[in-house]
Structures are given as structure tokens and as C-alpha cells.
Amino acid sequence: MQEQKKVTFIKTEDVEYKIKYLRLSEGKMFTGYTEEAIDGAQYSNSPINAKYQVSKDYWLQKIESKLHTINGKWDLTMIGAERLDIEHQYHQETSGIELNTQSHSGVYVQQGSLIFQLHICFESDPPLVSGSQSDDYISDEERRNLKIDESNIDSILKRMRPRRLNPEQSYPAKSLGEQDHVLMVRSSEVTRFIQSLEGTPQEAKRLHDKERTTFLVLLGSILKKVNFDINERGISGKIQRATESNNTPVSEEKIRTLLPDIKDAIERKLKE
What we know:
The structure is a single chain. The protein has seven helices and eleven strands. By secondary structure, the chain is an alpha+beta fold. It folds into three domains: 123 residues, no CATH class; 37 residues, no CATH class; 85 residues, no CATH class. The strands form two sheets. Strands 1, 5, 6, 7, 8, 9, 10 and 11 form an eight-stranded antiparallel sheet that branches. The radius of gyration is 27 Å and the shape is extended. The two termini are 40 Å apart.
């Protein structure tokens, strides 16, 4: 389960601004901003319908204060810091290069039209019920020094009430690694990628050798992530059945011809 806050994005071209001028005192010292025009003063554009920029194409428009606890399968938006995490894993698979995945733009997941920003939350004790005594609950200090035996286990269990997350004491995650998660690759996306490599029209721009090698290495990494061993006997049929299960079939013959190219691309990449 993850703690998240619901957000909305706005495209960069849709962000609106207002001009803010530097307010200067008689001694020409900076004292703040004003929206009143000042001749010759410096100014900045302040967004009025967005909070801050997440990527080149998107800004964070709105974020709710309420914390939501969710689980299940969610897609990465590939807009915020999660894109850096995936790039890092790709480079680890292909070259072992370390990337800096720390980002202040936030980590975002999506399910349909819902988009959430991952948050790291501090725990807070539940509020005291009216008329109850403070010793009805186990304090943080007691938790650290708690010793349980047969004589006190029943009373302790009664006082071990669920802890609440405090939305006032939370901050955006800087990377996927700050939250428990399991990365999965949808087989439909594997199929879509394979299909993008076959049947290229003559008028379409063909990939250069270096670009094709990169795509083949990436495809090999994806297959490895979903536990498809390209060296396994009969693997082309296994991949073909996976494409059929998603109603996006790719012929086994085409898959069989791609596998040697994938192996060769990975071997060449490892020798670089």
C-alpha cells in the first residue's frame, strides 16, 4: 500500500502568467514583489494556474491535501522522477552506468484519469477519545521500550490501536525507491514494441544502426523483466502466445527472426 495525493497536470503551453515587479526602497534594496508597474524595475512571470514545472511539457496544476492509501497495479506517468528511475534501470541493464535519480519534481502514478503523487508520511498517534486518559494509548517512547510477555500481552494488544498517517507531516517522494513497489511490464506493451519493429513502410524514416541496437537491447531488457529467457528452447512460441492473449498477435516466425538480433545487440552492448 502506498500513500499518495491526487494531482492534476496542465500542459506547458496552457500555463498563464502574471507579471510581478521587484519593489525597491529608496536605497535600491530589494524588498519584495508587487503587481504594480514600476518603470525600469526588474520583473518576473509568475504562473497563476499552475504550481511548479514537472517536466518540459507539463506543470503540476493542483494537488489535494488529503492522503489516499492505494494498492494494486498502477502505470507510471513517465513525466516526473519515475522516468529517471526507469532510465537508471535501463543503463544498469545495458552498461552499468550510475544515474542520479533524485528529483524534486515528484513521482507520479496513473490509473485511467486518476493521477497521484507518491508521498512519504510520518505517523501520528490517534487523537484521544473524549473523556479518556492518555494512558489508553501506547506512546512513541513506550513503543521503543516495549517488552511483551504472557502477563501483559492482552492489555498491550488492546492499546495497540492503528496508527494514523499525518497529511500535515508528509513530503513528496524523490524516487520510486522510497516506496515499496514491484515493477511490471505489461505484455501488451511488449507486443506493441515488437510490432513497431516489423512491417516498416518504405516512406517511413528507418532507424540508424545505433538506434536499432538501442531498441533491441531495450526489448531484451523488457523480456528479461517479464521472465522470458530468450535462450530458452521454444521461447518464440511462448512470446507468441503472450501476444495472442492480449489480442495483439505477432507471428512466431517474426519473433524467431528477431531473437538472434536481440542476442547480438546485447552482446555488442556488453563489449562496449
